[in-house]
Amino acid sequence: MNSIHESARDNAVMWVPGSAKGHVESFFMKFNDLGKGIAVWLKFTIYSPKGRPEDAVGEVWAIFFDAADPENLIGLKESYPIRTCTLSSSPVRIVMGDNVFEPPRTKGLLRDAEGTTIAWDLFFTEGAPSLHHFPSERLYTTGLPKSKAKSPHPDSRFRGWVSVGGTRVDVDDVPGMQGHNWGQEHAHHYAWGHCNAFENKPGAYFEGIVSKVKIGPVVSNFFSLAFLFVDGRMIRFNSPLSLVPRKTEVGIDRWSFEIRGITHDLEGELEAPRSLFTVLPYYNPDGALSYCINSKIADIRLRLLSRPRGRVEVELHGKRSAALEICTKEPRLFGSEAEAALLDKRMFSDLVRLPSGSWGLRSPLRNLEKMADWKKG
After folding, report:
1. For 156-165, how does the pLDDT look when each residue is reduced to its tens digit (9 = 90+)?
2. 242 φ, ψ to 5°?
3. Distances from the Cα of 267 to the Cαs of 190, 256, 258, in angstroms?
4. How far are the Cα atoms of 78, 87, 102, 220 from residue 113, in angstroms, in the given order?
């Protein structure tokens, strides 16, 4: 099967309308324009509360990141009753309000209660083979893990335009990606990273994740997987050998790891100043809140080591060019009381009715720096 047909299948909607199990599913995109120092993240989500499928909604998020001026960080969200949304898998077409996801195109317009807007009309390439995160396809059909993920387009180029607050930014052949995840809940505690804009290795791309799961009262240690395409070869770190990382540390604004593979080991660090992160309130189907600490302009450093001798084959680095998401249901799992204390559900106001008839956030998303000031006040 060629990559375009395979990615269409990987973007198929997994939600079963009317199911009482509860479901959350996202189709997301991001790109980095290194010349302008900006990044944009877009997400179309299906959210169905457990036991209340009649209350399912479609959600569209957009965040604009500006490395030169963190005050320009703008995040918007609108929600729509699912009965007003179009959800088609053959061909893939998702329509929520004025927002459309129809690979290889997406377009939309979001507006908050004060009139701030983010609009876009973008096309992305579909050339690179999709990434299936799990080592076995059977794991996509079993009850565990409860959260599934694929990357239909892990290495794309975006073109078109984005308008933020009425200011248009043209986008011309910039690196980005498109992913898809779904399940009965968001992963309990995880860090996820992606980069296809390395300064010293054009054409290389990386995606990786470490995650903890919770079964009853017990929270597991981290599990890991990663992929690195470099120098024309795909090196996978999703075998049983890679499942338990040799080392990983996840803070509120950083992630470091050492992952073993069959032919290579991979070491990496991703981090960014707190002013370049925002925090998104993600609700799970059971009503629990997950805090998604999100930056698309993080720094990244990777080292690929051959086995068994540990010789460094390749070093890769990128400045303000990587996606880094750190998400948790339990802030205490950061291990730092100061970092855990930054996250408080009171920072998120209730949704309000927007002039379009949809629902949106009452107040703009705060970055981590502003949240620290808010807590002090």
Report:
1. 999 999 999 8
2. -90, -10
3. 17, 8, 4
4. 10, 27, 27, 41
